[in-house]
Description:
By secondary structure, the chain is mainly α. It is built from 17 helices and two strands. The protein starts with a helix and ends with a helix.
Amino acid sequence: MDEAAGTAVMLAVAVALVPAIVNMCDRTLARRRLPGRAARVPRRGGRVAPATARRLPRARTGHAGTASAAEWFDTIARGVRAGLPAVDAILAAAPPSAAAAEFLRGLAAGQPLHGALSSPDPAVAALGDCLHGGSLSPAAIDMAAASARAAGELRGEVQVAVSYARQSARFLTVLPFAMLVLAALLSGTARSGLSAPGPLACIMAGAAANIAGARWMNRIISSAVRPVPSDAMASVAESIAAHVTAGGTVTSALDALSQRHEPCAESGRLMRAGLPLEDAVRPIAVAGPGVARTIVQAHHDGLPLAPALRRLAAEMRTRRRDELLAAVRAIPARATVPLVLCVLPSFVLTAVVPLGLASFGAVRTPAA
């Protein structure tokens, strides 16, 4: 009976400590996610091209990995306003990511600046949207910096909020096995009794339920922050606005986006073919009616296109932010189903029933 009483006391203490441990893990993970470290410029052999005889600056650390992108844009804009050529202004700024650092190495080696338009890095591609006629527009770069800063703040909020749910789910799925291992280490009766067929069958069933519950909760968390088409269309609106601010036209902006967004490529081909604007932007309207409608209305009303697209992108991002935060707040309610159907039964099958059977077997053996 002493073994059974000790096991029961240990389980009661562990269950009482679960909320405090979960909160501690949540705060620790949140603090780790807030700083966010951007990639440093990899050091490779060879020197910078003679035309730019200076070492490329290291990548900076920023909030959620994107605040450094905003700083990058700010530094480039200051360089352009100071009268530096576009390439020199870019090379003087610390790149925000490894892909941006690779792009800078290409620039230092003499590659054309227009290669930014096809870069997979969002910050480099956004810088390419600010390019027109071989020169960069400081006003367009300021717009890119504001967009990067807003995206970084949103990503930081979502990461911290999701970290609570993800760390709690991870802890709850690990707890039954930790309890079982602790009981086996502290109790010789538990070690000998857990090898019986009954406890082993319970442990296997609990492990299966635990894995199913963990995967179920991870799917719920991942679906809450899954990208949606509105994210891409907000970026399209900002890219067109930046290109128009830099001095380009809608057609040239769509051509610049052709490698990143297929509807823009199709609309650009239709505009070059001479179709009316309403017909040419129909592929964009299928992907996102707001962008196409704003382009047509600004054209008909004779209003500046860039401010209208910027307002539209801000509205889309604000709406998306509200949707993301609402989805994150709903994670605990949605995770209740796998918690009740999988995680709690797993705890009972893995940490309670096997230890109870082992203790019961130890009590019956002397009596026999």
